[in-house]
Structures are given as structure tokens and as C-alpha cells.
């Protein structure tokens, strides 16, 4: 019964829309699921919140501990990852430098409108069967998009607007740093044992974001997390999700 509900047959029929705050969040949270759905003939789209240059902590040479990564670098990396995962299409909602890491300054109604109908890859245009959204985080962009996604995915009359049967919140290696009431507790898992290497390759392709092995968001850290999620369901590796809505 479980295999019938969540096996290849089910996933092959999905039309998934991923909402990602920043380039690489889609990889941390659900690259394996995207790859598995695409391998089975399903559809996958990624709507990116913002993309811009940013200063990062980390050795920059000459004793400096900050370095800048340009928007062009991140865009090139993201485009390559989208090709690697074979997504059908992707879009950046806010490409202006001033909007990167500043989605919390956008009125929620404007974010909701973009996700709901105004973006080229909006819910109304894509009409997904599965919506994958960021979970709550200390990051202001993640929180802003989470709340906007929940509003955009609100239930309504199916005769008036598209109803998304499956709304899931995806994982991130940073979610251990949260208040107790916002901790991530997965209650749905997708086996990505055959796609873990691809997921890790995708993260390494976001080369400007890669840090050393002890960093929680390193490729090594992501592999440990993926294998831990797998062990929670007695599989080699998995991605965990929080179910916000599931209608069959």
C-alpha cells in the first residue's frame, strides 16, 4: 500500500513546483526528489526568490575574513545545477542586487501575488500537484517566503483557483539552529538512495557556497544528513519533509 501511494508510479505523475529563497536551497532541501521525479517522467519547476551578489564569511586572503561572490557567479552556478537536475524551467522572482537577502522588506501581499499568479512560473501558470516550500529558519528570506507560500497555497474553491493537493516543507542543514517551537520534524520521507551522488554533485556545483567538511552545510555535512534521514526509514539516504497538506 505504501509503495502504491509513494512509489515510482505516484512520483512519475507529479508536477512539482519548488520555491527556493536562494540558489542552493533547492539542492539542500529537495534535489534528490527533483532528480527522482524527473527520472520517472514527471515535471519539475524551480521559482527562486532572489539572486544577487553577497559578502561571505571565509578566508579571502591577506588576513581578511570576508569575500564577495558576484551575482553573475551565482547565476552561472544555479543555471548549471538546473541543467544537472533536468528541471523543465526556472525563474528568479527578484534579480535586483538590492533585493537579495531582503525579501522580508517586500510586503507579503506582493510576495504572495508573485507566487500565486504574477510570476511566469506561478502556481496559477504551472498548476502543480506538489508544492515544495522552504521551512521556517532564522534567515529572513526563508521566513518571508515560508509565510508567503503558506498564504499562496491556502485552500479555496477548486472552481475559482488551482488547488494544490500536496504541500510539503523541505529540509535544510541549518535548521538545527531554531527555537524549539520552530524545529524541523519530518513526517514524510522520499527515498533518494539512487540520487544522493547527484544531489552532492549539485551542491558542489554551487562552488562559491561550498565550505570545509566541518561546516554543517558542506557536501560532507549534507551527505551525513541525507544518510541520517535514510536511516530513519531504513534506507541508504532520503530527504525529509513536513506535510502541510496531503489530499488524495
Q: How does this structure look, described?
A:
With 248 residues, the protein is an alpha/beta fold. Helix content is 37%, strand content 23%. The protein is built from nine helices and nine strands. The strands form two sheets. The chain has a seven-stranded mixed sheet with strand order 5-2-1-6-7-9-8, sandwiched between helices. A two-stranded antiparallel ribbon has the order 3-4. Helix 3 (25-39) packs across helix 8 (196-205), helix 4 runs antiparallel to helix 8 and helix 5 (108-118) packs across helix 7 (140-152).
List the helices and strands and how they pair.
Elements lengths: L1 H5 L1 H5 L2 E6 L4 H15 L3 E8 L3 E8 L2 E6 L1 H15 L3 E6 L13 H11 L4 H4 L3 E5 L5 H13 L13 E5 L17 E4 L4 H10 L13 H13 L6 E9 L2
Parallel strand pairs: 1-2, 1-6, 2-5, 6-7
Antiparallel strand pairs: 3-4, 7-9, 8-9
Amino acid at each position: 500500500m505504501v509503495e502504491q501511494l509513494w512509489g515510482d508510479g505516484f512520483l512519475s505523475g507529479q508536477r512539482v513546483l519548488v520555491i527556493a529563497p536562494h540558489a542552493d536551497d533547492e539542492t539542500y532541501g529537495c534535489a534528490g526528489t527533483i532528480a527522482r521525479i524527473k527520472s520517472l517522467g514527471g515535471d519539475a519547476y524551480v521559482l527562486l526568490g532572489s539572486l544577487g551578489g553577497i559578502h561571505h564569511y571565509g578566508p579571502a586572503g591577506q588576513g581578511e575574513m570576508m569575500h564577495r561572490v558576484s551575482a553573475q557567479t551565482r547565476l552561472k552556478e544555479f543555471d548549471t545545477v538546473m541543467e544537472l537536475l533536468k528541471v523543465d524551467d526556472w525563474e528568479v522572482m527578484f534579480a535586483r542586487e538590492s533585493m537579495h537577502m531582503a525579501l522580508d522588506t517586500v510586503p507579503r501581499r506582493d510576495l504572495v501575488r508573485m507566487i500565486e499568479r504574477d510570476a511566469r512560473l506561478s502556481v496559477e501558470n504551472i498548476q502543480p500537484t506538489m508544492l515544495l516550500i522552504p521551512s521556517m529558519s532564522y534567515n529572513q528570506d526563508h521566513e518571508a517566503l515560508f509565510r508567503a507560500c503558506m498564504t499562496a497555497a491556502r485552500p479555496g474553491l477548486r472552481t475559482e483557483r488551482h488547488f494544490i493537493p500536496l504541500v510539503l516543507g523541505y529540509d535544510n542543514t541549518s535548521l538545527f539552529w531554531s527555537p524549539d517551537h520552530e524545529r524541523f520534524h519530518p513526517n514524510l520521507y522520499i527515498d533518494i538512495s539512487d540520487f544522493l551522488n547527484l544531489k552532492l554533485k549539485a551542491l558542489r556545483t554551487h562552488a562559491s557556497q561550498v565550505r570545509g567538511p566541518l561546516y554543517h552545510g558542506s557536501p560532507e555535512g549534507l551527505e551525513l544528513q541525507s544518510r541520517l534521514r535514510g536511516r530513519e526509514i531504513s534506507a541508504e539516504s532520503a530527504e525529509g519533509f513536513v506535510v502541510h497538506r496531503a489530499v488524495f
